[in-house]
């Protein structure tokens, strides 16, 4: 185990930003933390990184007390900061070299540029980079010291799908090298694909922690039928469809979780014919429950509201 968090608490005035969190992260795993805005993710991560102090509880990183061995821990971990633009007049490679100077050991700049596909932009000034390039630069900065644990805070937010996929590859490559990655993300698909285990955080507490499959299986034995109807039927009507066990709704969109897909579907079709305009289910899909469904069920919210 490379991170151990025990009963962590951080209070800001009336807000219990972190309210008694405990978990462990194993060596070589990609560990994900998911939660709505304000759930306490950044506070937790920054305490682990030694950037903030806790009010109570204990955090051990690589066997060291995070409050006492801050210097040594910083040499051995990598943290993605959202601030590469702090030195706007340096080129990409100059900035990476400045950062390398902060550490006892570092990866060659060439290798870092290769990892995040920024070789062609090496001589571009930081202030002239696009949002996606800045994002990749911030990941390269997190990797400068070839860290044993890398903390990535929403590393693919704002990236186009192709660059996002290349970032996933970077994370998968780190894992293949036996490195530990601590990831916060708002993208369920990303968490489901990359993370070995995921902690779902809400109101400063961990409300679920398991593998993506485990989270789905323990919350849903059912399949999901998704469609749009105008007007949308009430939850009570949806729950009266045979086989239906629970529902989630948003505007005209309906998700009915069911043990009996054909029975629920035919009740829904019949309902639409009698009550709705157009009298059909729009954008109808039948699917297995996903991590997004788990998140919605546990927190009562979509990840971005
Ligand atoms: N320095 C601070 N001073 C006062 N309140 C703070 C401070 N930092 C965080 N908070 C509060 O603590 C709570 C948790 O914030 P935190 O940034 O950890 O959440 P988060 O899960 O990272 O959210 P996001 O997804 O929006 O980044 C929020 O209510 C926030 O307003």
Automatic annotation (TrEMBL):
<dbReference type="InterPro" id="IPR027417">
    <property type="entry name" value="P-loop_NTPase"/>
</dbReference>
<protein>
    <submittedName>
        <fullName>ABC-2 type transport system ATP-binding protein</fullName>
    </submittedName>
</protein>
<dbReference type="GO" id="GO:0005886">
    <property type="term" value="C:plasma membrane"/>
</dbReference>
<dbReference type="GO" id="GO:0005524">
    <property type="term" value="F:ATP binding"/>
</dbReference>
<dbReference type="Pfam" id="PF00005">
    <property type="entry name" value="ABC_tran"/>
</dbReference>
<comment type="similarity">
    <text>Belongs to the ABC transporter superfamily.</text>
</comment>
<keyword id="KW-0067">ATP-binding</keyword>
<keyword id="KW-1003">Cell membrane</keyword>
<keyword id="KW-1278">Translocase</keyword>
<keyword id="KW-0472">Membrane</keyword>
<dbReference type="InterPro" id="IPR003439">
    <property type="entry name" value="ABC_transporter-like_ATP-bd"/>
</dbReference>
<keyword id="KW-0813">Transport</keyword>
<dbReference type="InterPro" id="IPR017871">
    <property type="entry name" value="ABC_transporter-like_CS"/>
</dbReference>
<dbReference type="InterPro" id="IPR050763">
    <property type="entry name" value="ABC_transporter_ATP-binding"/>
</dbReference>
<keyword id="KW-0547">Nucleotide-binding</keyword>
<feature type="domain" description="ABC transporter">
    <location>
        <begin position="3"/>
        <end position="228"/>
    </location>
</feature>
<dbReference type="GO" id="GO:0016887">
    <property type="term" value="F:ATP hydrolysis activity"/>
</dbReference>
<dbReference type="InterPro" id="IPR003593">
    <property type="entry name" value="AAA+_ATPase"/>
</dbReference>
């Amino acid at each position: 185990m490379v991170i151990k968090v025990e009963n962590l608490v951080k209070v800001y005035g009336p807000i219990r930003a972190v309210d008694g969190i405990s978990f462990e992260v194993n060596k070589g795993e990609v560990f994900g933390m998911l939660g709505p805005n304000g759930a306490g993710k950044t506070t937790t991560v920054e305490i682990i990184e030694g950037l903030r102090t806790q009010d109570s509880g204990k955090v051990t990183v690589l066997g060291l007390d995070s409050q006492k061995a801050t210097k040594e821990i910083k040499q051995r971990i990598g943290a993605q900061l959202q601030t590469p633009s702090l030195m706007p007049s340096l080129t990409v490679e100059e900035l990476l070299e400045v950062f390398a100077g902060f550490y006892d050991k570092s990866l060659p700049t060439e290798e870092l540029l290769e990892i995040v596909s920024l070789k062609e932009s090496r001589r571009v000034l930081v202030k002239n980079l696009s949002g996606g390039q800045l994002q990749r630069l911030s990941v390269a900065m997190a990797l400068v010291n070839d860290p044993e644990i890398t903390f990535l805070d929403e590393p693919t937010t704002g990236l186009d799908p192709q660059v996002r996929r290349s970032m996933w590859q970077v994370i998968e490559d780190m894992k293949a090298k036996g490195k530990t990655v601590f990831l916060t993300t708002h993208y369920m698909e990303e968490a489901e694909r990359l993370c070995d285990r995921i902690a779902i955080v809400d109101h400063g507490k961990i409300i679920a922690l398991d593998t993506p499959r485990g989270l789905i299986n323990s919350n849903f034995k059912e399949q999901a039928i998704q469609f749009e109807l105008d007007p949308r039927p009430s939850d009570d009507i949806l729950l009266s469809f045979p086989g239906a066990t629970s529902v989630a709704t948003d505007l005209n969109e309906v998700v009915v979780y069911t043990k009996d897909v054909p029975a629920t579907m035919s009740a829904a079709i019949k309902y639409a014919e009698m009550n709705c305009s157009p009298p059909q289910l729009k954008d109808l899909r039948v699917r297995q429950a996903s991590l997004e469904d788990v998140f919605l069920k546990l927190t009562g919210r979509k990840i971005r509201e």
